[in-house]
């Protein structure tokens, strides 16, 4: 019974990693659909959201069944409850990728406002944060989790830089406002993806140390 239980825990871990890989792919495709002006790719990315939703429901069901049948304690209980929170963050990341894809479809219908430089960088950093946060989860690596938390500041700084640049466009030519606002939304969606990766990293600290540091990282906890 004990061996079977830990096999099921490992399946939860593997499914969570598969869900994370799907989400990372969605983020990469969403931003590529904007940069490459490929609306077909954006539509494909939106369609992936169903796969992520289905995986979330499946993993959540697995976790609830483990809680009901095995009544785990201590570390195993923390693992299951952490996994349930992680898949919620992953599902919201996928929603943000859908939002980016929708903005890309709209922007691709109009002349490009400016070269896309900071947004692809934001995407790359956010994707790495997601990858590293899940690696930290699997390896129970608090050091890596804290690196992810610290990296969030870079994404915030880039979002602010995008805002300042686009504000200049809007002030100089009001005709650019609709396109600029859509790009601002894209940067906001990427910032939210980074925030969710940070949430996962904070959950890893809870998993390993049993300490809840959410809402406390600004104080250096």
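Sequence proposed for the structure above (221 residues):
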């Amino acid at each position: 019974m004990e061996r079977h239980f830990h096999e099921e825990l490992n399946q939860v871990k593997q499914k969570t990693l598969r869900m994370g890989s799907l989400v990372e792919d969605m983020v990469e495709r969403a931003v590529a659909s904007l940069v490459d002006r490929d609306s077909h790719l954006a539509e494909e990315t939106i369609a992936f959201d169903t796969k992520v939703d289905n995986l979330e429901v499946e993993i959540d069901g697995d976790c609830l069944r483990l809680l009901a049948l095995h009544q785990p304690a201590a570390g195993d209980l923390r693992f299951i409850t952490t996994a349930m929170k992680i898949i919620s963050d992953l599902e919201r990341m996928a929603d943000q990728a859908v939002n980016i894809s929708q903005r890309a479809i709209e922007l691709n219908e109009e002349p490009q406002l400016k070269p896309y430089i900071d947004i692809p960088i934001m995407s790359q950093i956010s994707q790495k944060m997601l990858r590293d946060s899940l690696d930290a989860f699997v390896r129970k690596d608090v050091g890596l989790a804290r690196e992810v938390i610290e990296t969030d500041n870079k994404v915030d700084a880039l979002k602010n830089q995008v805002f300042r640049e686009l504000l200049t466009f809007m002030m100089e030519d009001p005709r650019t406002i609709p396109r600029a606002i859509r790009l601002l939304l894209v940067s906001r969606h990427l910032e939210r993806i980074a925030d969710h990766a940070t949430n996962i990293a904070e959950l890893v600290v809870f998993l390993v140390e049993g300490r809840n540091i959410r809402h406390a990282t600004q104080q250096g906890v």
